[in-house]
Design a protein that fits this description.
Ribose5P_isomerase_typA_subgr, alpha/beta, binds ribose-5-phosphate, ribose-5-phosphate isomerase activity, 27% helix, Ribose-5-phosphate isomerase A, 15 strands, isomerase
Length: 228
């Protein structure tokens, strides 16, 4: 069993009958969704899933997990998702798979958030992983210019030479920051949020409650972290 599968299965143990569960996106969350699908089928686990991307929706539908949209539920009990980097203060970067917008909406409406990662994702300070910023196409060149002027080393994310489109039809600009001190995260988040054309960014601050880390010797659960 690989480390992503290990934490996916471990996290699924936190899901019990009657829960409304946010289903994350990515290669680690994939295993958690597979495990929930298995439990729905074999153990008649009674849950409602709220997906965070078209890809996860497709996967969950194929597994016959009952689904509702985030707008059809009163709340989400628990969301389980992957992450790209987690700092020693449990702040995170997400969006390597371009799903950050729906992920942040579902996470912000969840009573509890669990992130599942292999141990390579734990860092002292965030920033080695490029920070994704979701922007609407209109005016995106102006945002690229602004980020360039601010020495954030922006790169428009491409696939086959074309701008990638998120599930909402937006572009992703990746910022290469190298290392961001935790004290600079909130000012950076506020600055990005205030820019016209920016829809959302991949800094997930004070959101996670528990992290399940995949280590060679087995899964390790750390947290819980109080929300700020
Ligand atoms: O947009 C994608 C999500 O934020 C993913 O949860 C994140 O990129 C981690 O993905 P993976 O588990 O594939 O490394």
């Amino acid at each position: 069993m690989n480390l992503k599968q290990m934490v996916g299965i471990e996290a699924a143990k936190h899901v019990t009958d009657g829960m409304i569960v946010g289903l994350g996106t990515g290669s680690t969350a994939y295993y958690m969704v597979e495990e929930l699908g298995r439990r729905v089928k074999e153990e008649q686990l009674d849950i409602i899933g709220v997906t965070t991307s078209n890809a996860t929706e497709q996967q969950a539908r194929a597994l016959n997990i009952p689904l509702k949209s985030v707008d059809e539920v009163s709340h989400v009990d628990l969301t389980i998702d992957g992450a790209d980097e987690i700092s020693s203060n449990f702040q995170g970067i997400k969006g390597g798979g371009a799903a950050l917008l729906f992920e942040k909406i579902v996470a912000s409406n969840s009573n509890k958030n669990i992130w599942i990662v292999d141990e390579s994702k734990l860092v002292e300070n965030l920033g080695a992983f490029p920070l994704p910023v979701e922007v609407i196409p209109y005016g995106s060149q102006q945002l690229l210019n602004l980020f360039e002027e601010n020495e954030l080393q922006p790169k428009l994310r491409l696939i086959d030479g074309e701008s990638i489109k998120t599930d909402s039809g937006n572009y992703i600009i990746d910022l290469h920051l190298e290392s961001i001190d935790d004290s600079a995260l909130k000012p950076l988040s506020s600055w990005l949020n205030a820019l016209p054309g920016v829809v959302e960014h991949g800094l997930f601050l004070d959101i996670v409650d528990t992290v399940i880390v995949g280590r060679e010797k087995g899964p390790e659960t750390i947290g819980a972290i109080r929300r700020g």
